[in-house]
Every structure is written in C-alpha cells, then in structure tokens.
Amino acid sequence: MLDHITQTTLLLDEEKCRQNIAMMADKAARNHIRLRPHFKTHQSVQVGEWFREQGATGITVSSLKMARYFAANGWTDILVAIPVNIREMELVNELAAKVQLHLVAVNIETVQALAEALQRPVNIWLKIDTGYHRTGILPHSHEELDAIVALVEQNDMLQFTGVLAHDGHTYKQTDAEAIRTIHHTTVFLLNLVRDRYKGRFPELKVSIGDTPSCSILQTITGVDEIRPGNYVFYDLTQQHIGSCNFNQIAVCMACPIIAKHPERNEIIVHGGSVHFSKDSLMGANGSLIFGRVVELSENGWSEPLEGIEVVSLSQEHGTIRASKALFDRYKIGDLMGVLPVHSCLTADVMGSYTTLDGKRLEHLSGMGQL
Amino acid sequence: MLDHITQTTLLLDEEKCRQNIAMMADKAARNHIRLRPHFKTHQSVQVGEWFREQGATGITVSSLKMARYFAANGWTDILVAIPVNIREMELVNELAAKVQLHLVAVNIETVQALAEALQRPVNIWLKIDTGYHRTGILPHSHEELDAIVALVEQNDMLQFTGVLAHDGHTYKQTDAEAIRTIHHTTVFLLNLVRDRYKGRFPELKVSIGDTPSCSILQTITGVDEIRPGNYVFYDLTQQHIGSCNFNQIAVCMACPIIAKHPERNEIIVHGGSVHFSKDSLMGANGSLIFGRVVELSENGWSEPLEGIEVVSLSQEHGTIRASKALFDRYKIGDLMGVLPVHSCLTADVMGSYTTLDGKRLEHLSGMGQL
C-alpha cells in the first residue's frame, strides 16, 4: 500500500480508531451516561458509521455547516456546540425541520433572535463558563441566567434542555490530578445551575465535553452526557496531556522525503503547514516540536523514534532534525511517518484519509465548495 | 453584499489585489527583469487571469499538484519551486508532456532519479542555500555542485537552466536595511555559482523569490527573474515586516459575532484555526495577535482599529479583546472584519474567496478531492 502513496497523505489506522471509539462507548455505558461524540475531529461520514456501529445515536458538531453534512447522512439528533450564529437562521430552520436540533446560547440577544425567527422547535442548551473563560455564562450570573431561562420558557419553539460546559483548560494540563479537579469543579458548577431550574424543568440535562477529562477519569458521575471528540484519533497533544498512549494515536502523516542536508543532519519532507496546520508542542529542551517521526510499515506504524523530530514547518516544507544514525537510515524518495501534534487541524487541512488497506475516506473540508 | 454573508467568509478586494499585481509587474519591467509570480498564495485560476492581463507568462508553484491545476487552466511555463518529489514521477512526465516544466533539485539522488525516469525534457534549477538554511546547496559546496551539474550535462532530458534561492529569512526582519543586506548577499552568492558554470551554460539564469525583498527594493539588479507571491494579497505579517501598508492588504475575513462577554470586554466570533490557520504575530505588549479588526463596509474595509485585536483562536472560535467603547459598538449577529496574519494559510484553509461585488473565486484547496 505504501508503494502507491506518491503525495503527502493522512493515514488512518481503522483498528486503532475503532478501539478508541469502543473504549469511550464502553466507559459511557459503564457509567450509565450518554455518549454524544463530537464529530469535529474526524468530520467524516464513513468514520461516523463506526460510531453508529458502537451505538451512537446523538452527535455533537461545531458548526451548522457540519450539522448539515451529517444530517444529510442519516444523523437525526445533532447538538451544534458553539453559540449559534444567528445570521444562519435559514439553515437553522432547514435543519430543525429535518433533525432533532440542539443549539447553544450564551447571550439573551441570541435567544431573542431565535425566538423571533424559528419556525420549528429546537432544543436549547445554556453554555456555562466553569473556568475555561472562552465563552459561556458565569454560573453566578443569576440575573442573566434567569432572564434567558424566562425568555426560553415563554417561547414554544425553544425547549430548555440542559446546561453544558467545555473544559478547554484541561488541554493545558499534564497532571491527571489537575484534570480531575477541573472536571469535578465543572460538574459541581453545572449541577448548581441545573438545580436552580430543575423545579420548573425536571428533565434538564448536564453535559460536559473535553477529551482529557473523559479519557483520564474512569468513573464519571453527576453528568447525563459526555461529548468528547478528539479521542477518535488522539494525537501528540493528548499523549502529552496524558489522555492516551502513543499506540492509541490512529492517524499518521506519510510525507515524501524531498531533500537531505548531511552537514546538519536535517531531512526535508513535503509536509508543511498546509498539511499539518501549525500547532506545536514544547519539546524537552524548550524548542518547539511540530510532529514526531515513526517507522511506517504495511501494517501501520511504530511508536515515535527517539532522536528525530519535526522542528519547523513552512507552507509546504517540513524540516526534520535527526541523529546521524537516523539521518543515514532515510533516503530521498522514502516516505516518512509523522504523528501530528493536533489531529483535528491536520485532518481539516488534509481533507481526506487513507486507511491502511487503501480505502479513501472523506472529510467535510475536502468535499469541494463551488 | 455584506447582508448576504451568513458564514465566515474570506473577502477579496479585487481593486487592491489588481494594484498589487500591477505594482510588481511595473517594478519588474522598470528593472528589466522577468517576473515569474508565485501562485501558492492565491491558488486561484481567476486571480491568475489578473496576472495574465498584466503580462505574466511564466509562473511559480509549490507542488506538482498545483502545477497540474494551473496547467489545466492554460499556463504553459511553470516552475515547481520545491525540491521535486520523485515519488510523483508519473505526474512529472504528464506535466512535462504538456508544459515547459521547471524543476528544482538540491541533491544528486534527485537528479539521478529524474535522469532514469524522465520521458520528456525538463528545465533544472539548482536551489542554493544563501542563508535561510531550510534547503538548498551551500554555494561553496563545489564538489556537490560540480557532480550534479556533470550529471545534468550528460542527460538529454535535463536542461540546466539556472540557480535560484528563497530568502525566507527576510520574513524574520523588520528593518529594511537588514532585508537589503540579505538580498544583496543572495544575489552575490547566486552570481558566484552562476559564474562557475556560465562558460559551459551561457544562458544560465539567476532567480530570487521573497516578497519582502521584492517589495522593499525599488532597484533590483544582478538577477534575471523574481518570484514573489504573497504580495498579491499581502497580510499583517508583511505589514509588520515593512513590505506593505495596511491599505494594500487585499483580503479580509468577515466573521459573524456569536457571543459577547461584557465582564471582560471580549467578543467571540465564528472564526477559528480552521478559518485563519494558526500563525500569529507578537503584539506591542508581548502577547500574541491572531488578526486585527477593521470596519467593514460595502466598499471594502478600513485600516485596523486601535484597541481591539484577535487574542486567541480555538478550532472554530476566535476571541477578540476590545476597549469598552469598541466592545459596545458591536452586537451579536454583526459581521466583524479581521485582517489575517498570514494570507497564504488563511486562503488555503478557507478554500474560496468572495469579491466585494459578490463573485465567488475558487482556491485549489476548496475544489474537492474525491
């Protein structure tokens, strides 16, 4: 299969990917909570089917466009986990006519706009800022919360369904205890908000979403639903956090070697920021790493090799610095395997996947726009 | 026009873009050198036509795939300015049968592979490392140079055409004098290499390529050809370097506002790393900037506003921090204009452009792959 790869290609190990999907489905089942997997990492109808085989019915996406893509492919219960873009009201109504649509609000203006323009009922979730401070309503902003809930309550098209949070700050941690503390804080705060309204809305749900918490915790209580997404592939960032082992990473770039520089043991691959995107990790010596090198074989890839790393990316070139021994092992025209720092962004720029048995799987971003 | 924009959109000001194209064409003509514009920034057949109207005949691209795209659209003289990927020999032969194909080599192994597999003649350029140290042959590596030139000379399919460099290190400068010194050093070194072989190859050309040098220098001597690309749009990085003014930046993102946080004067737009990619600039106070905010109107956009900036990007969210006065000026559902830090990467992830009169222009990355 590798012999047929001529260009920079994103490889997908279906077995590892299916194991990741099964692992989280099992954990949710064991904890008696619902898993509503986030599909923003893979954005692929075919990968979505592997979730369906493991029992997924509801999904999470991060844009209305992504909701439309999965709605067109048989998903009927979709949460759009970003404050709803009220300029896309036409698409909101189109989706609400077709699927059980869950929308997120953090400002009363958004809810007012929905109340005015909705033609079909939707489920409304309030996003609570439990510490990440990207977006959300602060849990003690009772006046704001009460006003939004009152508005939702008055309108037949708006069904107050739950409170949710995204603990993006767990992505900055490398200590499992810190991640547990963030998680427990979030669960506590979301339950405070739910308790404030559960008299009037007894069915109100609590939903959380980050891959680090959902990976590290074995016992998850106090929530009705989890929405992790990145675990479908994992990546070097998640390994660095402690969410996964290297051998759970289910995607790997195959990059043709196009130049070698023996005077500094640097190898140039065709693989730059248009292939990897541009997230990086801090390496042991304080320098940035844009990917780790693995050995490719017909059956997949090894754990990362020591003494060889992607040290910089320009638009189309990737620079790999190696020990002399590893430098000598590669020749021009070889394919080099590179584990990505951030699989969501790498998949988004690559626009498709190639499985180890040579199947091409689609990604929404590679489906064409015109 | 703005009223019809519902999603995150990359706006293109055709007038500014055509002025940038004309400016560089005029400069090349004035200096009696050839302009072979790099098309990796726009990657658009329609924008390419604007270059053709200004006299461009030969172009530069950064992958064989991009060469195929432009070859399919009437370009017949194409330089692929990256060490050639010898795994794509089939595509090399296909292109060589169709267009005047110029390839770049930095290692003898690449030239050997070409010599063995080429079915049609191609033009060979040697890439010289004049100081950027990404890739290229060092100008004093005479043994290596001589061996490659001897191999090229022996083979009828390989026509030794010139020596070229890319001064990527000018992108790290903000001092015009430093950029001039880098440029003059490169021209000196390339001419040394050319002079070594001009007895045997009297037609040998010298080609340089970076947008900072080509923008800042008014008089360019000692080269036959320039290959700048980013100047077609420019961006905040080029403004920071000193290559352009804010009002020459020809692309701007229009991002719907999806949330507001009055307690910290932060605005959330739908516009994250899948829209902007993830390059940043160092701001005045040492913090990172991922974009600058402008006022949008039907005729284009203003210079950047002071006191409001994109301070972080996650996958789909952009966080804008504003002064109180500017924070209050925006409401949920408004479109916010944001100048990109790096227009090449932003265009690549967006996959298309919308002109101010509402035309949709394509980008290779948005053309679909399956």
Notes on the structure:
The structure is a homodimer of 370-residue chains. The first copy, chain A, has 370 residues and is an alpha/beta fold. Chain A folds into 2 domains: 2-9 and 245-366, Lyase, Ornithine Decarboxylase, Chain A, domain 1 (Beta Barrel); 31-232, TIM Barrel. Chain A is built from 12 helices and 21 strands. Chain A has an 8-stranded parallel sheet with strand order 2-9-8-7-6-5-4-3, covered by helices on one side. A 6-stranded antiparallel β-barrel of chain A has the order 10-11-18-17-14-19. Chains A, B: Belongs to the DSD1 family. Chains A, B: One of its GO terms (biological process) is D-serine catabolic process. Chains A, B: This is D-serine deaminase-like pyridoxal phosphate-dependent protein.
Write the layout of secondary structure elements.
The structure is a homodimer of 370-residue chains.
Chain A: E1 9-12, H1 14-30, E2 34-35, H2 45-53, E3 59-61, H3 64-71, E4 77-83, H4 89-96, E5 100-105, H5 108-117, E6 122-127, H6 142-154, E7 158-164, H7 176-197, E8 205-208, H8 211-216, E9 225-226, H9 236-241, E10 251-261, E11 266-270, H10 273-276, E12 281-282, E13 288-289, E14 291-294, E15 296-297, E16 300-301, E17 308-313, E18 317-322, H11 324-329, E19 335-340, H12 343-350, E20 352-355, E21 360-362
Parallel strand pairs in A: 1-20, 2-9, 3-4, 4-5, 5-6, 6-7, 7-8, 8-9
Antiparallel strand pairs in A: 1-10, 10-11, 10-19, 11-18, 12-13, 14-17, 14-19, 15-16, 17-18, 20-21
Helix pairs in contact in A: 5-6
